[in-house]
Design a protein that fits this description.
Blueprint lengths: L2 H20 L3 H24 L12 H26 L16 H37 E2 L4 E2 L1 H14 L6 E9 L1 H8 L1 H18 L5 E6 L2 E7 L4 H9 L6 E3 L2 E3 L2 E9 L6 H17 L4 E3 L9 H15 L3 E10 L4 E13 L3 E3 L5 H4 L4 H22 L5 E6 L9 H12 L6 E6 H6 L1 H13 L3 E7 L6 H6 L4 E4 L1 H4 L6 H16 L3 E5 L4 H10 L3 E3 L7 E2 H11 L4 H4 L1
Length: 567
């Protein structure tokens, strides 16, 4: 068993014991009193039976004295000392065989000494209980803020959920104090601590009496209220906490916040689940630059399944479980297969085929995306070299994420794999999303420029849903625009999308850029795009993504082998 598992089990076992020691129930106290009295009487009988006070059996009398002090404190220790002293007092002979009795000073001295020992044990027991009580309080409370912490809130919220009558809604609000770290870095930690105390004090004044208030992170509060008033009114009261500035050391400080809200039982039935949903809503509010947001499952991209897959991914890469599928790109003017897009798939030994939507969004938020992308590059380039050898020269496209743009070794990895597989730079296309470039325009433009200088083709993916300006588009030096499938899927029936697509095609033509329409799913859309002069098309109406062997058979059915390429 691992150390942390052992510690967790020990903590679970010791916690009830510690709680019982801090607050002894009446039943435990009664049992302890009976045991102590019984020990005093049993010790007195044993001492008498074994020959009197002169023998060492009399030292057993310290046991009930210590127990009395430990169980009942100073008063209990003194009372146990008096009882024990009297039990071995004037009626207990020194020697039962000779009948010699104790002097007054002898037994009164012993009684006083026992009382002193009982009092000392009681005092230590009191200090020990205070320490345990403090530890128990700190387990569920934030020491500096004097409110519940995450552990305490989870415990209290679970209790509240169990006691909530059917039909009553609990409202869980998680409040992120925006830029709180900036305030701390600017004014210091003691300043931010005083500011936080003011925020908590103001919050205590506006929440209803039976509400729960917790500081679950240094810059994050949580409030649990009953649905006793209008939900909008309850939210307005919480938002009102931040309407006015705070004055700390004479300095006015405005604190902004993002508030996420989740409801019991609508969104989750456990404390942990409710807090997680409220945090998702809080992140959503922060991204939309809104003061508050109610949990919406559409905004919840992360769940336990996703994170579990993310944890298994490094091992999957090492075991070669990631594979690359291909979707054909067709030249719309000739209907010839002009290239393909490499798409990652995960063939899990137990779960089967895992689609990228279940793990790629989370992977893109970590450095693992660099390993995944390099894996795709190596596989796709090797497959493209195989097609070329077989007489089917193909341009292969690989997707590049936001984090990949920050990978200083990416360009060298592309060069290395291209040389190893015998591919020309023009045989390779890197697809970079418009939003990825716009997150850091200057860096994105530099990366694209360097790729173009090395001869690689660059397509701006998902074009039309980002925020790039025409000035940036001209500076990007891209070779193609890939029109986002949001406009293509409903192209046949949506006149507005038709206007947008025709405008993008005209814009690309005027800038000397090729165009690719992705997400073509019906013959009408395909016909319209061909009529408007779109260069390439991609989608289920043309070819569904498939593993390399199936894609090779697709090439064989659509293309005659190129003798020049195979020789």
């Amino acid at each position: 068993m691992r150390t942390w598992q052992r510690e967790k089990i020990n903590a679970k076992l010791l916690r009830p014991i510690a709680a019982a020691l801090v607050i002894m129930p009446a039943t435990v106290k009664a049992i302890a009193a009976v045991v102590i009295i019984s020990l005093v009487l049993a010790t007195a009988w044993l001492v008498y039976a074994m020959g009197g006070i002169r023998y060492s059996w009399s030292h057993l009398i310290y046991i009930p004295v210590v127990l009395g002090g430990f169980a009942f404190g100073i008063r209990g220790g003194v009372l146990a000392g008096i009882a024990s002293g009297l039990a071995l007092g004037p009626l207990m002979p020194i020697n039962t065989f000779t009948g010699e009795m104790q002097t007054f000073l002898n037994w009164i001295y012993r009684l006083i000494f026992l009382c002193i020992n009982g009092a000392l044990v009681g005092a230590l027991s009191h200090l020990f209980r205070r320490y345990l009580h403090k530890l128990e309080w700190l387990r569920t409370h934030h020491e500096g803020a004097d409110v519940l912490n995450l552990s305490g809130l989870t415990q209290a919220l679970d209790t509240k959920i169990r006691k909530t009558p059917k039909g009553i809604t609990l409202i869980v609000s998680v409040i992120q104090l925006n830029a709180f770290l900036d305030i701390q870095n600017t004014f210091g930690s003691s300043f931010s601590t005083r500011l936080l105390a003011q925020i908590i004090d103001r919050t205590k004044q506006i929440v209803p009496p039976r509400s729960l208030l917790a500081l679950i992170q240094d810059d994050r509060l949580a409030i649990v209220t009953d649905d006793v008033e209008s939900r909008q009114l309850a939210l307005a009261r919480i938002e009102g906490i931040f309407d006015e500035s705070y004055i700390v050391d004479g300095v006015p400080i405005h604190v902004d916040a993002s508030i996420g809200v989740a409801h019991f039982p609508d969104h989750a039935q456990t404390a942990e689940g409710l807090l997680q949903k409220a945090c998702v809503a809080m992140y959503s509010a922060n991204l939309r630059k809104s003061r508050s947001a109610l949990y919406n499952i559409a905004n919840d991209r992360t769940n336990k399944e996703n994170l579990s897959l993310l944890g298994m991914l490094p091992g999957a890469i090492a075991r070669g479980e990631l594979s690359v599928w291909y979707q054909a790109k067709v030249a719309l003017s000739t209907d010839d297969v002009a290239g393909s897009e490499a798409l990652v798939r995960w063939l899990h030994p137990q779960r089967g085929l895992i689609m990228p939507g279940l793990f790629i969004p989370q992977v893109e938020e970590t450095m693992l995306i660099d390993r995944v992308t390099r894996n795709v590059i190596a596989t796709a380039f090797a497959d493209a070299a195989g097609w070329r050898t077989a007489g089917y020269p193909q341009r292969v496209a690989v997707n590049i994420s936001v984090r990949n743009l920050r990978d200083h070794g990416l360009l060298d990895a592309i060069d290395l794999n291209a040389r190893r597989c015998g591919l020309m730079a023009d045989d390779i296309e890197l697809e970079i999303t418009e939003s990825a470039v716009m997150m850091d325009v200057d860096h994105g433009i530099r990366v694209i420029s360097e790729l173009r200088e090395r001869g690689y083709r660059v397509a701006i993916d998902d074009f039309g849903v980002g925020h790039s300006s025409l000035a940036y588009l001209q500076k990007m030096r891209a070779s193609a625009l890939k029109i986002d499938q949001m406009f293509i899927r409903t192209l046949a029936a949506d006149p507005n999308n038709q206007k947008i697509v025709r405008a993008i095609l005209l814009l690309a033509r005027s800038l000397g850029l090729e165009t690719v329409a992705e997400g073509i799913e019906d013959p009408v859309s395909l016909s319209l795009l061909r009529e408007w002069g779109c260069d390439y098309g991609q989608g289920y109406a043309i070819h569904r993504p498939s593993p390399e062997p199936e894609f090779r058979r697709f090439l064989e059915s659509r293309m005659a082998p190129s003798l020049s390429s195979s020789s």
